[in-house]
Amino acid sequence: MGATTHHTGAFLIQTPDTVFTPEQFDAEARQMADATERFVREQVIPAVQQLERHLRTHPTDAATKSARMRALLTQSAELGLLGIDVPIEFGGLGLPKTVSALITEKTALQPSFAVSHAVHTSVGSLPLLLFGTEAQQYHYLPKLTSGEYIGAYALTEPEAGSDALAGRTRAERIGDHYHLTGNKIWITNAGFADLFVVFAKVGGEQFTAFLVERGAGVVIEREEHKLGLHGSSTCRVVFDGVAVPASNRLGEEGEGAHVALYTLNIGRFKIGAAALGIAKEAWRLGYEYARERKQFGHAIIEYPLVWRKLAWGATLLYVVESATYRLAEALETAFQAEGASRQQVWRAAAAHYAAECALLKVAATEALHQVVDDALQIHGGYGFSEEYPIAGLYRDTRVNRIYEGTNEINRLNLVDRLLYARRKGFWQPTDTCETATDTPEATLATLRGLVGAALSRLEAYTELPQLLVEPLADALIALYLLDSALVRARQTRLPAHEAMLALYHEHVRRQLAGWSAELAGLTDNRAIAIAPQPLAPLYQAVWEAHRHA
Predict the structure, then answer these.
(1) pLDDT at residue 4 is higher than 60
(2) Which of 182, 256, 538, 544 has its CA 20 to 30 A from that of 219?
(3) Integer Cα distance of 335 and 345 in angstroms
(4) Beta strand extents in 192-316 (DSSP E only)
(5) 98: CATH
């Protein structure tokens, strides 16, 4: 075991001595989290439920939706929730990334509010922090943190989704103004946003970011008819020669890719934290229903096929939570590093952990999918009824694996960014050829040898082979989660943590044989044979530890 390390790809080299865990939050952080949860449960959830019922009977009433959600966001500003990552001098709270993640978990309890809040506080505000001039920051950030202005992020276009840099929106400079022409789609908060971060190509070539105020002539088209998130605003935005002062250019001409991607890195971290919060809520709903629902004379929670789902859900929450706060600490360390200027440090920090942010986004949203699906299954037929909240969560959470980079794109990003980090000298493959999996430590050594060999061989490819990237990315995700869960269990020594670590470890062992077979062409045919261990006692241990915790 090595010392605590904070750099991208560090998890490929060694297991740290310590990581930040939720058990380390102080009383002040917990009080802030409790206050946020009370606000969401008492103010937000009832209001959005009423809003969605209204929209079912008046589906074209976009004005009501916009007014209600904007009012909730403005109300949240009174608790400081619109400025959790913004420094104090701009009216924000300037919270550490660990506490910011905890608050994000709590805002996520109502998904329509969560996505509206997250767009405003992350991709709607962070570009100003990372690339804004001092004048831009002092002019806009206090308005954004107070709720006077609501932010939106206009990147996606009809022909440019995952390939965002292929956008066709143009900007032509005439004198002291740029004139923007084009269309953006799937723009969250568009129905009521005041300030849009918009991306366009100057002269059709230079991909550039702009701060565009709603009153400049932006046209907002109808609300999209979405599968879920019915309480949030999502519209197409049209720019027909909209004049934007040159002083509202964000960064330099041609720097838009950096503005977009650095911001999205942190946005993906926030999606991971939000997915964790929603998953905890879904698990709670499944657990409480299973305790109350009786069949054949017993509460259904007494039946192994029910409590086993809850035990696995609790395990997924444990490993994802461990990874989330490990990454939060690493990001905070990077954001607090010394440098020529705070903005340069922050840009470097946002870029540095691109791989881990992509990893967490995939891991958390896919764990969320499993937990929500199992919670609905526990509800049986009632889970298919809109009278029960799990139905809404099921619809609302599906988009998490799509927006801010589909999970397929983020698997590619994960591998690509780790290869880039190796070329920059941040990590080197371990020399181990271990194939042992009898302990979590041995499995981690085996995983490091497998993914290190595969990544090394991929350096020779000019284009990543996607059929190999998927198993490699999944092995990388399992490595990071298992590593994080192991260190946390060592720190806390809680029986529940040790039991969940053991169960997750066995699931990783069982998948390891498949990953090694899929990656054999990259690893000199290093096949890894696994003798599966019985799962039943591991599930039993998790459930017993949970019941007695």
Answers:
(1) no
(2) 256
(3) 6
(4) 195-202, 206-213, 219-223, 234-245, 249-250, 294-295, 298-299
(5) 1.10.540.10
The owner of tokens 């670590």 is 501
Is 51 within a domain? yes
SS3 246: helix
3-state secondary structure 91-109: CCCCCCHHHHHHHHHHHCC
Token digits for 346?
A: 């922050």
Q: Looking at the DSSP assignment, which residues form a beta bridge with residue 234?
A: 188
Dump pLDDT digits (tens) for 247-306.
999 999 999 999 999 999 999 999 999 999 999 999 999 999 999 999 999 999 999 999
pLDDT in tens, 84-123: 999 999 999 999 999 999 999 999 999 999 999 999 999 9
d(CA 135, CA 340): 19
Burial class (CB in 10 A: 0-12, 13-18, 19+), 382: middle
Same-domain pairing of 140 and 30? yes
Q: Looking at the domain assignment, is residue 547 inside a domain? A: yes
The residue segments making up the domain with residue 502 are 429-549
Residue 9 lies in a domain: no
Least confident of 172-181, 192-201, 434-443: 434-443
CA distance 464 to 239: 36
Domain termination residue (choose one: 253, 274, 290): 253
- The confidence score (pLDDT) of residue 177 equals 97
Prediction pTM value: 0.95
- 137 and 245 together in one domain: no
How buried is residue 509: exposed, middle or buried, by Cβ count under 10 Å (0-12/13-18/19+)? buried
Which entry of 157, 404, 506, 518 is annotated as an active-site residue? 404
| The pLDDT of residue 438 | 93
Both structure tokens of 441: 């430590």
Which residues 6+ apart lie within 8 Å of 519 measured at CB? Answer: 450, 454, 468, 471, 472, 475
Kindly state the tokens that stand for 446: 């085996």
User: If you search the block for the tokens 């927006």, which residue do you land on?
Assistant: 403
Q: How far, in Å, are 33, 76, 402 from residue 90 at the CA level?
A: 22, 17, 32
Report yes or no: 76 and 147 within 8 Å, Cβ to Cβ.
yes
Candidates 522, 527, 524, 412; CA nearest to 460 is 522
- Specify whether 537 is located in the same domain as 520: yes
Q: Respond yes or no: is residue 470 known to be catalytic.
A: no
Cβ neighbours of residue 476 under 8 Å, at least 6 residues apart?
359, 414, 415, 418, 451
Q: How many distinct structural domains can be found in the chain?
A: 3
Q: Please give the pLDDT value at position 3.
A: 46
| Structural domain contains residue 47 | yes
Angstrom distance (rounded) from CA 236 to CA 162: 17
Cβ proximity of 65 and 233 under 8 Å: yes
pLDDT at 82 over 70: yes
Q: Of 149, 179, 185, 351, which is closest to residue 248 (Cα–Cα)?
A: 179
> How many CB atoms within 10 Å of residue 135?
9
